[in-house]
Design brief:
Essential component of the TIM23 complex, a complex that mediates the translocation of transit peptide-containing proteins across the mitochondrial inner membrane. With about 400 residues, this protein is of the alpha/beta class. The chain contains twelve helices and seven strands. It folds into two domains: about 100 residues; about 230 residues, HAD superfamily/HAD-like (Rossmann fold), CATH 3.40.50.1000.
């Protein structure tokens, strides 16, 4: 079975499971309503005819159980509507697959170049169909398992502290020499994409991912922090970061470093990357180049690179949020080179949080990497007299 057929089969199976789950929820809600509202025993004589119940004219007068059933029915119908849209995508995928299966035949007397072009077109269609199938499968998985908020035992939903906001509200000042930064990098959705989470060693790297990681590790202090399980993070890091660079990474954190409870750890909960956990870690604190003179990592010298702004909720002005990578190697805009330039610019300021609060990072879809423009030197990436002051 081809990779395309496997993705299409998994997407169809996910859609079927979602439909069955919605039906079970509606049936369960209906049965719970009947159990919670037992029929009252009639006190009238057995031979007396029961009067017909008046029909409810307004939904406001419905019992709570009926309203719950209606809500469940509405949710089920909404899910079925989503599945109908997915069926249209699957129909398109099957058509693309049929076009790919057709082998281009070379006409008598035709040129070899014509046949080669037909083969290339067929390959491009197959790659595009494979990408759509993978994206559809991921969409169905997201619709099936929506993230829930962490429990109170896991820390709940964090908010920025007043002290953090006060420091972020300060005026960002330019430096004559770039300061050293702590760069915290996410994996899935930021650096790479995993089509199938059951196969953690298989992934698609984002364009310029290896070069971006190499530059950050050689230039700054880097921490890898992912919400995936430790064994999966280990496989991903070993696959995308060479051993000589891996030794320079200060820490590789996974799901076990979020402070989740035992129950939340195995659930699809929203994870929050509290940067204070990094700053309070002794081994990470000692990685500061000026640790001996009392310098520490904090909001003025830390950058979080992630595809989810919600994950950086506790320190919202230290995150560089970029669009999620879903495996499309032809995505518009060279995303990681833009992050590279932004980190270099932040290193020329004394307060990262104040700088990002004044001018948040915004990805440009039409950005194109200039030849030879990747890999600026660490010392003074820009002339300070050409950098405008931020208001």
């Amino acid at each position: 079975m081809s990779l395309f057929s496997r993705h299409l089969r998994l997407a169809t199976r996910s859609m079927t499971q979602t439909l069955r789950r919605s039906a079970r929820q509606v049936i369960q809600a209906n049965s719970d309503n009947q159990i919670s509202q037992p029929r009252k025993q009639s006190t009238s004589p057995p031979n007396k005819k029961l009067e017909a119940r008046p029909r409810l004219s307004s939904s406001r007068s419905r019992p709570a159980g009926d309203q719950a059933t209606s809500r469940s029915l509405g949710e089920g119908l909404a899910t079925i509507s989503k599945l109908a849209e997915s069926l249209q995508v699957i129909s398109r995928l099957e058509q693309l697959k049929a076009d790919c299966v057709k082998q281009p035949k070379r006409r008598k007397g035709g040129s070899k170049g014509t046949s080669d072009r037909a083969v290339r077109n067929s390959t491009q269609k197959e790659n595009h169909a494979l990408f759509l199938a993978s994206k559809l499968k991921g969409k169905m998985e997201n619709d099936r398992d929506e993230k829930i908020q962490p429990s109170r035992q896991s820390g709940g939903v964090p908010e920025p502290t007043p002290q953090y906001r006060n420091i972020a509200n300060a005026r960002p000042n330019l430096l004559r020499e770039a300061q050293h930064l702590l760069v915290v990098i996410d994996l899935n959705g930021t650096i790479l994409y995993r089509p199938n989470k059951k196969q953690p060693t298989r992934f698609v790297a984002r364009p310029h991912a290896v070069r971006f990681l190499q530059y950050c590790i050689d230039t700054f202090t880097v921490v890898i922090w992912s919400s995936a399980r430790p064994e999966n993070v280990k496989h991903l890091v070993e696959a995308i970061i060479p051993p000589e660079l891996r030794q320079q990474v200060v820490a590789i954190w996974a799901r076990d470093q979020f402070g989740l409870s035992a129950f939340d750890y195995n659930q699809r909960v929203q994870c929050y990357k509290r940067l204070t956990r990094l700053w309070e870690d002794d081994s990470i604190a000692r990685s500061h180049p000026e640790y001996a003179v009392g310098r520490r990592w904090d909001q003025t010298n830390t950058v979080l690179v992630d595809d989810s702004y919600e994950k950086g909720r506790s320190e919202p002005y230290n995150i560089i949020e970029i669009p999620e990578f879903v495996g499309d190697l032809n995505e518009t805009g060279d995303m990681l080179p833009q992050v590279h330039d932004c980190i270099n610019q932040l290193s020329m300021h004394s307060n990262v949080s104040a700088c990002l609060m004044a001018v948040p990072f915004q990805a440009k879809e039409q950005f194109q990497l200039l030849r030879g423009g990747y890999g600026l030197p660490y010392k003074c990436p820009w002339q300070t007299n050409s950098m405008p002051e931020l208001s």
